[in-house]
Amino acid sequence: MPISPDAVSPLVLLLGCGQKQASRREVQSALLKSISLASESEIFIQYLGQGRSTSNFALGHLQYLRDEITRTISDNSKLNTPPLLSNALVIDNAQLRSLQQEIDASRQRSEQPSALDTSAQRIREIRSALQKANSSL
């Protein structure tokens, strides 16, 4: 006996809404990825501030970091977190956006060591906030 399309639509909607909730481990993995991005960004901006990079390499690597941050924010938005874990993901995304702003600022001031030192300090604070969110899980 064939099933009518009208009977299938509610079933498809119901199955689509049943997205599996992210586990604590998955949220921690997302936070660890963000901590890693913040650490890499901090180290690279310190390296850049010491004048150890060519302009082309610096701009390319900063763009790579920005792209990875954007991809991570997108991946995080796909996680269906239960209420007890959602705060950690909110913190993660907020800190990633702050990290993205620091990367953008560093691209604009890649020739200014004191401005890069300030960005590195802010990124250190971002990393610290991410580590705190991770340890609270």
Description:
By secondary structure, the protein is mainly alpha-helical. It has five helices and no strands. Helix 4 (83-108) runs antiparallel to helix 5.
Number of strands: 0
Main β-sheet description = none
The 3D shape can be described as: elongated
Distance between the termini: 51 Å
Measured by DSSP, the beta-strand proportion falls in: under 5%
Rg computed from alpha carbons, rounded to a whole number of angstroms: 20 Å
> Portion of residues in helices?
over 70%
* Total number of helices: 5
Poorly predicted regions are 8-16
SSE string, helices as H and strands as E? HHHHH
Class from helix and strand fractions: mainly alpha
- Summarize model confidence as the mean pLDDT: 88
Task: Explain briefly what this protein structure is.
The protein is an all-alpha fold and 137 residues long. The protein has helices spanning 5-17, 24-49, 55-77, 83-108, 113-135. The longest helix is centred in the N-terminal third of the chain and has 26 residues, at 24-49.
